[in-house]
Design brief:
- It is a single chain.
- With about 100 residues, the protein is mostly helical.
- It has a domain at about 30-95.
- About 80% of the residues lie in helices and about 0% in strands.
- The radius of gyration is 26 Å and the shape is elongated.
- It starts with a helix and ends with a helix.
Length: about 100
């Protein structure tokens, strides 16, 4: 019997439990739909907050600093959404180019 094979089997057996999750410490995984739903609602809330701040600034109830911050957050959210959309379209086009 080759001693190196025995050592490899022992090392594999010792390493295998390290790859398995520890009972009681599993994090509940969210599905893609739940995650996208949360992201969409966060985006909508950011957009709505920016609109409310802009309306308040036009009515004289908010200062210009608050307005600029709200508009910057809204702009960042829109840019992020456009970037994600572009990546999804790019991935879809790449899938279409794959040979079947």
């Amino acid at each position: 019997m080759d001693i190196r094979a025995l050592n490899a089997a022992q090392k594999y057996a010792a390493a295998r439990p390290a790859m398995q999750p520890v009972p009681g410490q599993e994090t509940p995984g969210k599905g893609l739909g739940e995650t996208l739903g949360e992201v969409t609602s966060d985006f909508a809330e950011t957009f709505r907050s920016g609109e409310e701040t802009a309306k308040a600034a036009m009515a004289g109830r908010a200062d210009s600093t608050t307005l600029v911050q709200a508009l910057a957050q809204t702009e960042l959210a829109v840019e992020a959404a456009v970037t994600v959309r572009d990546k999804v379209v790019e991935a879809y086009q790449e899938i279409l180019r794959m040979p079947v």
